[in-house]
Amino acid sequence: MEIFPEGLEPMERVRASPQEAYAANRDNWDGRAQVHAASAAYDLDGLVADPERVSSVVQRDLQILGPHLPDAEDRRGADGIPRLDGLDLCHLQCHIGTDTLGLARRGARCTGVDLSPRSLAIARDLAARAGHEIRYVEANVLAAADAVGEDFDLVHTSIGTICWLQDLGEWGRQIAALLRPGGTFFFRDSHPMSNVMLDTDPGVMTPAYGYFPLAEGEVFTHADGVTYTDGDTAVITQPRNYEWSHSVSEILMALVDAGLQVVAVGEHQDLPWPQHPSMTAEGEGWVLPEPWRSQVPVALSVVARKP
């Protein structure tokens, strides 16, 4: 049972088919793409104008992934960010391609995958304006391998991804199918423990959502019509979206059951956005205040390898 502080509007737990949920999410992200492309938070014109710019998300991802890359010692960039030269990379749930561009700027030959056609149209235009050849494929991640039709040295997915997927078992199988033997998978997202917490009252952090996966056929839904870049200043035309909860064990076992070898798991104190109202900016990320910072991990990372 979810426990919500008085006055808080929770996400509603409902029954819906994955097909219905994915269709609504695709339309929702088409709307978000329009807002994000015009938002100062993404700053597409600035990204094009500065060929050295790489998002803070990509920088943090590569800091974590760097020691596990092939020839890791030789990939240390002069700026401290690992290089990806010579590696074929598939970026799952790439949205409007800003992070895909960053990965390409670190030397990878990139393919991006997303279910939102409007997001991919913006991503293609961004890549062309920035002078990079990046292939983009429209597909649900759970059918990515057949849609893409290639295999890769690296598969990469990061920040705000698996909550939009119902079946992590199939997610793991798709990742394994996209990887070449010896290839590496990288994942980073908000931590399942942090996802269940709310801090609506000063000094109080409250468990509000169940930690464990939902029952078969259940999904969380909400329709607030806003997005994380612009608050209530820009309204999404199709506001309804659907999300699923996933535990740490479910994430790890999806990869293990798909035949991948987990080589590193990290739990982190920083996220690239303020998931909780009490979080404050620190460097390029956001952190909880103490004592919560020492009590609740806010991000989870996983590196896995295909034998």
Automatic annotation (TrEMBL):
Keyword Secreted among record annotations: no
Molecular function GO terms recorded: methyltransferase activity
CDD domains linked: AdoMet_MTases (cd02440)
Pfam families registered for this protein in UniProt: Methyltransf_25
GO biological process terms held by the UniProt record: methylation
Domain Methyltransferase residue range list: 94-183
Keywords, ordered alphabetically: Methyltransferase, Transferase
Keyword Transferase: yes
Gene3D superfamilies listed in its UniProt record: Vaccinia Virus protein VP39 (3.40.50.150)
Superkingdom of this protein's organism: Bacteria
Protein's name in the database: Methyltransferase domain-containing protein
Species the sequence originates in: Serinicoccus hydrothermalis
